[in-house]
Amino acid sequence: MKVILSTLNAKYIHTSLAIRCLKAYSEKDFDIELAEYTIKDPVMNIVSDLFQRGADVIGFSCYIWNIEETIKVIDVLKKIMPEVKIVLGGPEVSYDTEHWMKRLTNVDFIVVGEGEETFHQLLQELEGDRKFHFVYGLAYRKGEEVILMPGRPKADLNELPSPYRFAEDIPELGKRVVYFETSRGCPFSCQFCLSSIEVGVRYYDIERTKSDILYLIDNGAKLIKFVDRTFNIKRDYALEMFKFLIENHRGCVFQFEITADIMRPEVLDYLAENAPPGIFRFEIGVQSTNDPTNELVKRRQNFAKLSRTVTKVKQSGKIDQHLDLIAGLPQEDYNTFRKTFNDVFALGPEELQLGFLKMLRGTGLRIDAAKYNYTYMDVAPYEMLSNDVLSFADIVRLKRLEDVLEKYWNSHRMDHTVNYLIEREFASAFDFFQEFGDYWEGQGWQKIGHQLEDLFTRLQSFLESRGTKRMDIVLGLMKLDYFLNHKYKPRKIWWEHTLEKDDWSSYMKMVLQHPDALLSPVAADGVAETGKQHTGGTNAAQASSSTAADVDSAKSSQQSQPYREMIPAFASLKLGEKELQKHAVLDILPFSLDHILSGGGPLTAEGRTLLLVVYQQNEQQKPLYYTMPIGKEIAAI
């Protein structure tokens, strides 16, 4: 009997852990192949590939992001392969299972919950006596009747074979995100999350875990994403794993979901002192800072402690942080969500993801939907449309904010500009992204694509339409950000170049004759880091006094980090006129750039700045920029 285990991933770079677990458990007894596609692949392409592989059983791993696309594939498959047995599994079909069996008449079986043992026993019965009533954790058909068998006890994780050691995966390890679990379950009870349904946390043996990770690294893995719901729930376990990964990373990057308010100080101290920059990434689900909301959804969270953790991690300069928010939770109206957004943005995460509540099957919040007057999509992803305190009109506005947030903050295309605008021109970060998002849609830009230059010209249009002050400073910062967005010297600019050719030549000669007059350079990635530490200013955060103090401390510490010392002086590059012509851009800004970047106000930014950006002069191929004050300061030159 030939079995194909398939899933439709979000992207080609992602690997599916679930179907690998099933294969690892059953491949000793059955001929099992893995077949991975994406939700963007045409249905006929997927069906054709599965048809040509030939199979007696095809299993699909189902989630909210792929269920509807998977159904389309199944319906076509059954038309051309009516004899094939279709098996579904995964979180999307493990709840309301009877609903799925009745809706999807082309599905023969559903494996509910953990699948390794259930799927293996199902295959045995398909080859044997077909006594499916012996298979716990299975839904099947008996004539027109749907039979739901009792659930299966949780497996002993250490009895499950490793799903990470398939020889056929090795050629792709360096190109794909490897999903990895060291535990199953979650200790918390958040009512919007499926993980809250399973009580308790089970761990794999730590030595086995280390061995599997070494195997992946030895065979070229570049990014391992741990799927544990709370990686740091056990301090000693987390600390031992962090130490092991630091000692053995060999350039591999590791991403974790952590609960920040329970992170122990000694673990943070260890990471700050020992973690190499860039090998760890933390994903932290904040969701809401509104206490009544967190109480209603049974989410225990101490935002002051969370803030201290995020701030300390940020001060170390070692670990990027991705913070998550959820709009649409109970008792979180538009105004309280504005405060939530500003509270979290004030912490300066490298990424701030704004998601919208999904009413997942099996969760307490979906069961209690009527209590809060929720309306939501009938099909996956079941996104909420409104509730008793947040209207659909509010959701539409927040969608606009989310769009601009992704384009202008999470992409880090304009860190200098956005930080300045939020600090100096808008009441808060939320207000900047919301106003710009409203303007964006008002111009109809959501209906058309954009290139990098369009992001700059559209921001300029928005700022000019509202009469933004000191546009000369804003445009200067936009020029700097534009230059730093390129790996090579840009061939075109989006503004009118006002520097005459003779003046350009004179300034370039000055640079060549007096290279030591240029201020110490800053690498583009270093600039981005200092930009990312933005706190939102005194009127943006609306955070508690303790949190604000922590953030101010982080800002002060980060501004003193020796980014400038890490980069060679301009003179040491020893560039001649030809090299500068080929690899450098030069512009004159009508204000003191260093004064603005160090936090100074626009009223005291008098003077002019020569800005020189140089490309292709380091191993990382990051642009370097240099400044020189123009005026009294260089009268001697």
Sum up the structure in keywords:
metal ion binding, iron-sulfur, globular, six-stranded parallel beta sheet, B12-binding domain-containing radical SAM protein, TIM Barrel, Rossmann fold, 23 helices, cobalamin binding, iron, 4 domains, alpha/beta, 637 residues, seven-stranded mixed beta sheet, 39% helix
CATH superfamily of the largest domain: Aldolase class I
What is the first-to-last residue Cα distance?
A: 84 Å
Helix content: 25-40%
> How many structural domains can be distinguished in the coordinates?
4
Low-confidence stretches: 523-565
CATH topology (fold) name of the largest domain? TIM Barrel
- Average pLDDT value? 90
Instruction: Tally the beta strands.
Output: 21
Spatial order of the strands in the main sheet? 2-1-3-4-5-6-7
Report strand %: 15-25%
Question: What Rg do the Cα atoms give?
Answer: 28 Å
Judging by the overall fold, what is the CATH architecture of the largest domain? Alpha-Beta Barrel
Top-tier CATH class of the largest domain = Alpha Beta
Number of helices: 23
Morphology call:
globular
The biggest beta sheet is recorded as: 7 strands, mixed
Structural class: alpha/beta
Question: Care to describe what's here?
Answer:
With 637 residues, the chain is an alpha/beta fold. It folds into four domains: 147 residues, Rossmann fold (3-Layer(aba) Sandwich); 227 residues, Aldolase class I (TIM Barrel); 103 residues, no CATH class; 100 residues, no CATH class. It is built from 23 helices and 21 strands. α8 links the parallel β12 and β13. α1 crosses α5, α8 runs parallel beside α10 and α14 runs antiparallel to α17.
